[in-house]
Specification:
The complex is a heterodimer of chains A (162) and B (589).
Chain A lengths: L5 H13 L7 H12 L4 H11 L3 H10 L11 E6 L2 H5 L2 H12 L12 E6 L11 E3 L2 E3 L4 H17 L1
Parallel strand pairs in A: 1-2
Antiparallel strand pairs in A: 1-3, 3-4
Helix pairs in contact in A: 1-2, 1-3, 6-7
Chain B lengths: L2 E6 L2 E6 L4 H7 L24 E4 L6 E2 L10 E3 L3 H16 L15 H9 L15 E2 L5 E4 L8 H10 L4 E4 L6 E4 L15 H5 L5 E3 L3 H9 L3 E6 L20 H10 L4 E4 H22 L5 E2 L4 H10 L13 H17 L6 E7 L3 H5 L16 E4 H10 L22 H4 L6 H15 L17 E8 L2 E9 L1 H13 L6 E5 L26 H19 L9 H11 L5 H7 L12
Helix pairs in contact in B: 2-3, 8-10, 8-14
The chains are: A alpha+beta (162), B alpha/beta (589).
């Protein structure tokens, strides 16, 4: 297994230090790492373990339990498809399947060009907009299977321009 | 302690407040079936749902292992609702279990099978999704099979309790949940020290030692000169495999059984324990004299050595360079002894019967190789495996006569060698000899009570020839971590430290018979607290019975040095009996 270089190790240690007075700091530390780096691989977990005294096995358990945490880097655009009850009855499954078909990846995976990740979400609290899709925080309401192609094209052209 | 009034099955009882229903019921003479609750709450997750009962004041059925009693509570264990629920819980566990009981070495000691029988679980009541199966047999020591795991969490807790940071944890969620080292790695490329404590607590066959009975069979079939040696702690526990009370010493019967199993010679590792003491005590005194690295730490426990290499690679110079006793014995057998009896070393096959699962790993270490690619030891069987081997061979263990070890060249052993099997024993044996070497006379009273017992860290101070030396003893890596952190910080006040990997030492090793209350109806109620002491007493009693109780007085050992090795720590002794350690072992490679 690769190990973090010194600079990266110091950054992770600094994140751990933010919560050194907390009784149960693990969730906060992991949340910050996920937000700031996009994923939490094992070599990072090892640093957190050394720093907090919580075993790597336990940290790995927490990371794999919550779908918010990721072990691998996400794509530049994370397509979050809500599969909560309201979205589901309005056809969210067909919507996420269409994303999968167009991008050639399953939910939880990232395209090889590193652009897109499909994320299956439970209820995101936007039931009135069902079926809802979020891409990097932007919400697409009442998405139909037809819309999917347009949405993907929108981001692809954005990339082509850049 | 405040008392509360409760009723169980309509009968009034007074019990201590704060107890769980399970504990209270036990105190009143009821046995509620349970799986995940273990050893006074060492594991208490309420996860298996096998102990469901009815209790007034609770919504629905409650898990007796986690629900506390309160004043006026009425508990019903035997209602149709509760019995049906417990049966369903077990049936659900079985629906995700591979059920190949005939092939499972845990059979007879399997708690899942036991609760299936007493709850009346029916076959194939639920058929549906299953957890993916992962099978890890890459280490020479532990086999992990998720198709038998019931996710009770006992191994997770034991690993953490014995060693501080645990290697095992729960991963993923829902049907995909498994218990594994991080990343579902094999034990071989995670920082598992292979002590085998997880095997000892696993209620099913999900965690087992890797059997080497086949290797022994093959060597016998190939006509090899197969000799066997038995570690001290085996004799204190083997009887349990045959229903004898815990703490029954069975040295004589064990020797008789081994002879009937076809071993050409039956030796006692205790002889090599004496040899270890000569080498280790000499090494310690040399380090003191020459200003070597101190404190020196014992190196008999391979689990402990693994830990030191994984977590304290910068401190391994503190470990004694001595190999563990059975490896020393293997080296002597394949050189000195083979030569004496006229057997070619390559035709000799050395089997060690050990209370330890990690010895299986230790014997495969590259450092344990002899000239010509031979191994010091060729196969290691645990106490449990020996039990199975004896049963398989149609030997009625209880009816065997008491026989003596083979005595031709390397038999005699001392009381000091016997107590190696319990925490503090190596220290005590070393002190007996160090005292003599330093003062030139035997100490009055050979027993060093200060280093006996089961407290996590015990320390003592002795005056040897005017010089005061401070020593410490620990077992389990939780204590070792404390002592090693002191060394790293330069604040360690000790000269000599004994560390054993398993809590309580080898008598509680990862290869010893399972201690499960549910299968021990004739033992005392507090057996989970006292079994280690009982096994230890068996060894201390044997020590007391020995005419010679100090390693340096072992007559055959003297002959071994005179005829072969020269003197302790000689060049030849270093070649055969000493080893080195890996400073750069990677935890997740």
């Amino acid at each position: 297994m690769a190990h973090l270089n010194e600079a990266a190790t110091e950054q992770i240690k600094a994140i751990c230090d933010r919560y050194k007075d907390e009784k149960t700091p693990l969730m906060m530390i992991l949340s910050d790492i996920q937000r700031e780096y996009g994923y939490i691989p094992l070599e990072v977990q090892e640093v957190v373990s050394d720093k907090t005294g919580i075993s790597v096995a336990e940290i790995y358990g927490v990371v794999t339990f919550y779908s918010f945490f990721s072990l691998v880097p996400n794509g530049k655009y994370v397509i979050g498809c809500c599969l909560g009850t309201a979205c589901y009855v309005k056809g969210a499954q067909q919507v996420i399947d269409k994303f999968s078909e167009i991008l050639g990846i399953k939910a939880g995976e990232t395209t090889s060009d590193g652009l897109f990740t499909i994320d299956a979400l439970r209820c995101i609290g936007a039931c009135a907009l069902a079926p809802a899709v979020t891409i990097n925080g932007k919400i697409y309401p009442r998405v139909t299977v037809k819309d999917v192609e347009k949405i993907v094209a929108e981001y692809k052209s954005k990339e082509a321009e850049a | 302690m405040a008392l509360v009034n409760i009723k169980i099955e309509g009968i009034p009882y007074q019990v201590e407040s704060g107890l769980t229903i399970l504990e209270a019921a036990k105190a009143c003479g009821y046995e509620i079936p349970t799986l995940c609750a273990f050893n006074h709450g060492e594991c208490n997750r309420g996860s298996c749902r096998v102990c469901l009962v009815e209790a007034t004041g609770a919504r629905g059925l409650v898990a007796a292992c986690v629900y506390p009693v309160n004043e006026g509570m009425e508990i019903t264990i035997s209602s149709p609702k509760a019995t049906a629920a417990r049966r369903a819980s077990v049936e659900l566990l079985l629906s995700n279990h591979n059920k190949n009981c005939q092939q499972c070495d845990k059979n007879g000691k399997c708690e899942l099978l036991h609760v299936a029988q007493i709850t009346g679980a029916r076959e194939n009541m639920y058929i549906g999704s299953k957890t993916p199966t992962y099978y890890d047999d890459l280490t020479p020591t532990i086999v992990r099979d998720t198709s038998k795991c019931i996710l009770c969490g006992r191994c997770v807790e034991r690993c953490k309790n014995a060693h501080g940071m645990g290697v095992l944890g729960f991963e993923n969620r829902g049907f995909n949940t498994i218990v594994a080292p991080a990343e579902n790695r094999s034990f071989i490329n995670s920082p598992c020290i292979m002590c085998g404590q997880c095997i000892n607590v696993c209620p099913t066959g999900a965690l087992m030692e890797k059997s080497e009975i086949d290797r022994v069979d093959a060597a016998m079939a190939a006509g090899k000169y197969v000799v066997v040696q038995t570690a001290p702690a085996v004799r204190a526990a083997l009887g349990e495999e045959f229903g004898m009370k815990i703490g029954t010493p069975v040295t004589g019967k064990m020797v008789a059984a081994l002879r009937r199993l076809g071993f050409k010679k039956v030796f006692d590792t205790d002889f090599a324990a004496d040899l270890t003491i000569m080498e280790e005590a000499t090494e310690l005194l040399n380090r003191i004299k020459t200003g070597g690295v101190l404190p020196m730490i014992t190196s008999c426990s391979p689990g402990w050595v693994n830990y030191a290499e994984y977590y304290y690679g910068d401190q391994v110079d503190h470990l004694s360079s001595c190999k563990s006793p059975h490896e020393m014995f293997g080296a002597i057998l394949k050189t000195y002894y083979a030569n004496k009896i006229g057997v070619k070393p390559e035709d000799m096959f050395v089997v060690s019967i050990m209370p330890c699962s990690c010895k299986k790993f230790e014997k495969e270490r590259p450092e344990m190789e002899e000239k010509g690619g031979l191994r010091d030891v060729d196969a290691v069987l645990t106490t449990r495996e020996l039990g199975r081997l004896i049963k398989r061979s149609g030997i009625n263990f209880a009816k065997l006569p008491d026989e003596d070890y083979d005595t031709d060249i390397v038999h005699d052993y001392t009381g000091a060698g016997v107590i190696f099997g319990v925490t503090g024993g190596v220290m005590e044996a070393a002190l007996r000899t160090a005292y003599f070497v330093l003062t030139g006379k035997e100490r009055e009273g050979v027993v060093f009570n200060e280093v006996r017992g089961f407290e996590n860290i015990r320390e003592a101070e002795f005056e040897l020839n005017g010089a005061k030396i401070k020593v410490a003893v620990t077992s389990g890596m939780k204590g070792a971590k404390v002592l090693l952190d002191q060394i790293r910080e330069g604040t360690s006040p000790y000269t000599f430290i004994e560390v054993m990997g398993c809590p309580g030492g080898c008598i509680n090793g990862g290869g010893q018979p399972y201690v499960r209350e549910v299968f021990l109806p004739n033992e005392d109620a507090d057996i989970m607290d006292t079994y280690r002491q009982k096994r230890a007493n068996a060894l201390y009693t044997e020590d007391e019975r020995q005419a010679i109780r100090q390693s340096h007085n072992n007559p055959q050992l003297k002959a071994l040095y005179d005829e072969f090795l020269g003197e302790p720590n000689s060049h030849l002794a270093h070649e055969l009996l000493h080893t080195s350690y890996n400073k750069n072992r990677v935890r997740f490679d």
